[in-house]
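Sharing a chain and its predicted structure for anyone who wants a worked example. Both blocks are below, sequence first, tokens second.
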Amino acid sequence: MVQTSLGLVVVCGCCHAGLLNTLDQVRRFFPQPIRMIVGGTHLAAAEPEILGHVVTELRDHCKERVLDLYLNHCSGERALIALSQGGGVNANTCPAGTVLIFD
């Protein structure tokens, strides 16, 4: 997790505990808004119902701002597409070598 002037950046290696569970834990300890998620979300093999639930939760969480996602590793193409089309998030791929600058 990185604190920036715009909010928190959550860096995930691979969310085996679940992306929503991971974000809930971050929210329990840090009052700042989550602005960006970077890394593996462990959604590549997610059932359509689970993926839909994650999309809905992220969209509902981000009503006042856009959540930037930079996905790689175990996120999967289906998750990237679903999150891109779900609203409230700006989903991007983040292959090895990507440079992200946090303000």
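Comments welcome. The chain has a mean pLDDT of 91.
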